[in-house]
Design a protein that fits this description.
Helices cover 45% and strands 9% of the residues. It is of the alpha/beta class and 475 residues long. The protein has an eight-stranded parallel barrel, surrounded by five helices. Helix 12 links the parallel strand 8 and strand 9. Helix 1 packs across helix 11, helix 3 packs antiparallel against helix 12 and helix 16 runs antiparallel to helix 17. The protein is globular and about 60 Å long. Bound molecules: S-adenosylmethionine (SAM) and iron/sulfur cluster. S-adenosylmethionine (SAM) binds next to loops. The site of S-adenosylmethionine (SAM) has 19 residues, from loops.
């Protein structure tokens, strides 16, 4: 079917009640604070059950500081139980900032005439990719404004360019996408380029607010965006990433919206989203929003913990929008992926690390300027296992065939060993002597902790092979 984004409305009545504000508010308003219920809900989540909307509302309505602590503690426990100490690293790479939309919160919006618009050409894209490989990256997310120039074919072509770059011992092994919604054939074209996850954030699930902050362009169509990842699924992209831009509307409503979106995917496609993102609004060139709903730090920790408990198996992404101290703190409450060495300026990675950011050259302000190597040191020294693993996606362990969480022992069998192998590669190719020492100490410790005779021997063998020059080894 051909869809016209400007006039699109949801054709399939099954989806109509998918976000129902009365239902969401009904749960938020009519769920009473109840200690026993809160504890039961936390326990259900620790038993790895995805929470219902009503159960999520129970957590949202817990205000007693003791209960809030228990929710945070639950999220911490769940993270340890499900994801271990593994943190996956990636970097965003902005390909083009042309945009026909007018999103009030975004520095790239069409009405910002002071932005010098750039679309990387092939050589520039190769240069940026090399600069990222040189830092040690293996996973990128390519980012685009919404513009006729950034067609599905254009995106597919840029994905191909990135995959073809090799530099030293390195290459990019997984390319994810954050771009505008497409129709089904468009998503199919992009899927065929071999992408990992396609991310589209709804920004706000509250339609009147959505209309208020999206003043022009295709993005103004709420339903076109809300159903975007359904079309991606129809096109065969089974790794999709959802998100809400926190600060546009009441955070409680957005958390419920995200959980409802997850339920919808599970009901229709038998698989939840691969990742959830929860960016908080940051400063941007001519930022023009109502500040009434900006989310404070303590609320942010609460909402991340609630999301962790509500959707136990989904990856959660925390980006360099947040300052390093907030990131370090929130990592413990269930985050599984972070970016490192981030630079939002188009063509910025080839220029090297910049201490100050020019707002007219990026989409928004970032607040964690640490290089990837600084982040690696921090993670290693605090006992996390930094991971550049891309094994599942390359072995076809995606979508409903694979939910790392639902397969008992999966993390121990695959994720931790693969994280250690990609860490060994990083240590060999990109780390200082000091990091190398600390990193190998961590690898030895974590191998001992695995405690499965056979796997340990095979893992040690693979680490030795990496030391002697082999690359890209995984289980
Ligand atoms: N143009 C594509 C789109 O709108 O879907 C790509 C999105 S944009 C490059 C990635 C995300 O950044 C947006 O979906 C939005 O949630 C977020 N973003 C935009 N402005 C922001 C701001 N001022 N602070 C924090 N995040 C912002
Ligand atoms: Fe364009 Fe995306 Fe920015 Fe909106 S958020 S103005 S669509 S780049």
């Amino acid at each position: 079917m051909i869809y016209h984004p400007q006039t699109y409305s949801i054709p399939d009545k099954r989806m109509k009640p998918f976000i129902d504000p009365d239902e969401i508010w009904g749960y938020i308003r009519n769920t009473r604070e109840d200690k026993k219920r809160v504890r039961d809900v936390i326990q259900a989540s620790l038993d790895k059950k995805r929470l219902s909307l009503e159960e999520t509302a129970v957590l949202i309505n817990a205000r007693d500081p003791e209960l809030i602590e228990e929710i945070k503690e639950g999220a911490r426990t769940l993270k340890e139980k499900v994801y271990g100490e593994r943190i996956v690293l990636f970097a965003p790479l902005y390909v083009g900032d042309l945009c026909t939309n007018n999103c009030q919160y975004c520095g790239f919006r069409a009405s910002n005439k002071d932005v010098k618009r750039i679309t990387l050409n092939e050589q520039e894209l190769i240069g940026e990719t090399k600069a990222l490989i040189e830092q040690g990256h293996k996973r990128l997310i390519l980012v685009y404004g919404e513009h006729p120039k950034y067609s599905a074919e254009f995106i597919a072509e840029t994905v191909g360019i990135v995959y073809n770059v090799t530099h030293g011992n390195g290459e990019i092994r997984r390319v994810n996408i954050n771009a505008a919604p497409f129709d089904i054939p468009g998503f199919r074209t992009i899927k065929d380029a071999g992408i990992g996850t396609f991310q589209i954030f709804q920004e706000t699930y509250h339609e009147p607010t959505y209309k208020r902050v999206h003043l022009g362009g295709i993005k103004r169509n709420y339903e076109w965006r809300l159903t975007a990842l359904d079309r991606a699924q129809e096109a065969g992209i089974d790794d999709v990433g959802i998100g809400a831009l926190f600060g546009l509307y009441d955070w409680r409503f957005e958390v419920m919206g995200l959980v409802r979106h997850v339920n919808h995917f599970e009901a229709v496609y038998n698989v939840g989203p691969h990742t959830i993102s929860f960016p908080r609004i940051q400063n941007a060139l001519s930022l023009d929003i109502d500040k009434a709903h900006l989310v404070k730090d303590d609320e942010f920790i609460r909402l991340v913990s609630i999301l962790r408990l509500a959707v136990p198996y989904t990856g959660m992404i925390l980006t360099a929008r947040e300052p390093s101290h907030t990131r370090d703190q929130i990592l413990r409450f269930g985050v599984s992926q972070i970016d490192g060495g981030t630079n939002l300026e188009l063509g910025g990675y080839s220029k090297g690390k910049q201490e100050t950011q020019d707002l007219s050259k990026g989409q928004f302000q970032i607040n964690d300027n640490r290089s990837l190597s600084e982040i690696m040191d921090e993670l290693i020294n605090t006992g996390y296992i930094p991971s550049f693993c891309t094994a599942c996606y390359r072995l076809g362990r995606t979508g409903e065939h694979f939910m790392e969480f639902s397969v008992p022992g999966f993390i121990k069998r695959y994720c931790t060993p693969n994280a250690l192998l990609t860490l060994a590669e990083y240590l060999e190719d990109y780390a200082s002597e000091e990091t190398k020492q600390a990193g190998y100490k961590l690898i030895s410790k974590k191998i001992e902790e695995l405690g499965q005779e056979q796997k340990v021997a095979r893992l040690k063998e693979k680490v030795d092979k990496i030391k002697s020059g082999q690359r890209d080894l995984y289980f």
